[in-house]
Specification:
Length: about 90
Amino acid sequence: MNVFNSPSLYGIYHEIIVTDRRYDMQTEIVTVAGNICEAGDLFAIDRELPKINEGDYLAILNAGAYGSTMSSEYNLRPKAKEVLVE
């Protein structure tokens, strides 16, 4: 919610991948939530993704130009780091 709020504010769909197993055949239905205890801190609800294990990294794709500029330090949480991949 403080790091990337377009899903919670606008209901925008963003593809989410498990970075090292994007095409894993074993999948599960999951809800991807942020780390703030707020009802709107959700990135995806009932989304089919490869089975997620502790320590996996998830990537939220096509975040666009406003991901960082719309972030905040709500609840004293630091702003997210951004990574550009070519």
